[in-house]
Amino acid sequence: MSVQTPGPIAPTVAPSPSPEPTTLLGASAIIGGRVIRQFVRNRMMIIVTVAFPLLQLFMLLAAFSVLVRDTQDVDYVRRLAPLIVLTTAFSSILTTAIALWSDIRSGVFDRLRAMPLDMRAYVFGRIGGDFVRIMGVAVLVTLVAHTVGFRFSQGPIAVLGFFGIVALFGMMCSALAVAVALVAQHPGIIVRYVQMPTLVLTLMSSGYVPLEAFPEWIRPAVSANPVSLAADALTGLSSQQALTAPVLGTAAWTIGITVVCTVVATRRFTALMRRG
């Protein structure tokens, strides 16, 4: 009978430490960076949110600048440029909502859920990235408008106020895009319920023409239009015009729509997480 001798003992390998979960702020910053990279690499989004509004600015100035100056004694670029800046934010609702909808349905969202990640970071990152993009485009369009005569004549505080109003308006647009993306069942619904209302609100605003140019019966609706209020606020901050009512009106619209959209988006997002 032979006696078996024990073999060499294998060295014990300590398990590698699991990666630390990314903080909410860090994860939001990563996702926000992804949003900005997607925008820079997407020609269609650049055309819709930058090239088309600038083309609109140049065409309308060429067509109506002399007419408005001769009939109303107004430098048309001072009225038109603020509206074009707002248009860049307004037109981003559609592209942002479709991009978010695609993320949720294409598996990106499920991959993030499988990671040690606070999923609130996805929403915060999405909104933060869109906000940075909106403000960057607004600055770019303002600089381009400067080359065709747009000027700030109320000092540096008014300039900060100008971009503060753009930030408020952009926040409202981001909240709308997130809510629409979470509610819509397919991209066609997003196009149907975003494209036409944003177009109507833009055309029926006092950004293209003054309120007095509209028929009297529709002026209350035009003056209460959030695009009119924001455009009037920007015009007032860039040149000497009334400010109180447009600024307060813009703040009221922003708070109201953002609160409603946040409630809707929170409920839909919670249901999406529970559904698995």
Structure report:
This protein has 276 residues and is mainly α. α4 runs antiparallel to α8. The model has no long low-confidence stretch (mean pLDDT 84).
Short account of what is shown:
The radius of gyration is 25 Å and the shape is elongated.
| Poorly predicted ranges | none
In angstroms, what is the radius of gyration? 25 Å
- Taken as a percent bin, the fraction of beta residues is under 5%
Alpha plus pi helix count: 11
Largest sheet data: none
Could you say which overall geometry the principal axes of the C-alpha atoms support? elongated
Number of strands: 0
Mean pLDDT: 84
State the helical fraction.
over 70%
Which H/E pattern describes the elements? HHHHHHHHHHH
Tell me the span between the first and last alpha carbons: 61 Å
* Structural class based on helices, strands and sheet pairing: mainly alpha
The oligomerization state is single chain
Show the helix and strand layout:
Blueprint: H1 24-41, H2 43-72, H3 76-90, H4 92-106, H5 108-113, H6 120-146, H7 156-183, H8 187-203, H9 219-224, H10 226-238, H11 244-275
Helix pairs in contact: 1-6, 2-3, 2-6, 3-6, 3-7, 3-10, 4-7, 4-8, 6-7, 7-10, 7-11, 10-11
What are the key terms here?
single chain, 276 residues, mainly alpha, 75% helix
